[in-house]
Design a protein that fits this description.
Length: 133
């Protein structure tokens, strides 16, 4: 989010749209790959919507073409898009992976989450103090 704000202040909107479109293509493809992997590894799991595997495989073929074409035509934009994605890695390790955080870090994360929920008008029942289960 911070990197996007800096890019919006420094660069033009067209470049930002290019960064975001590359990130979207990448995330959509990884999601479809995950769908195919889960269909092979866990075929018995309940799925409310089940499609023929030919559809996601066809989608992946077009996705690969778009991704390779994007990397070939604008490698700098794709590189910056990857850097924008990688800025989320420290947030993941700080918020999710690190299990035994000090209480002050947990309180900070909880207050930032609650503040963000209020800012974006998100209703979440545990805002204002987590209950022990």
């Amino acid at each position: 989010c911070l990197a996007t704000l800096i890019i919006m202040l420094v660069g033009d909107t067209y470049t930002l749209i290019n960064y975001v479109s590359f990130i979207n293509y990448l995330c959509y493809g990884v999601t479809i790959i995950g769908l195919i992997v889960l269909r092979w590894r866990k075929p018995k799991i309940f799925r409310p919507i089940k499609v023929n595997l030919l559809i996601p495989i066809t989608y992946l073929a077009f996705w690969a073409f778009l991704l390779i074409f994007s990397l070939y035509s604008e490698p700098v934009v794709c590189g910056v898009g990857l850097i924008i994605i990688l800025t989320g890695v420290p947030v993941f390790f700080l918020g999710v992976y690190w299990r035994n955080k000090p209480k002050c870090v947990n309180r900070l994360i909880e207050s930032v989450t609650c503040w963000g929920q209020k800012l974006c008008f998100v209703v979440y029942p545990q805002c204002g103090g987590a209950e022990e289960e």
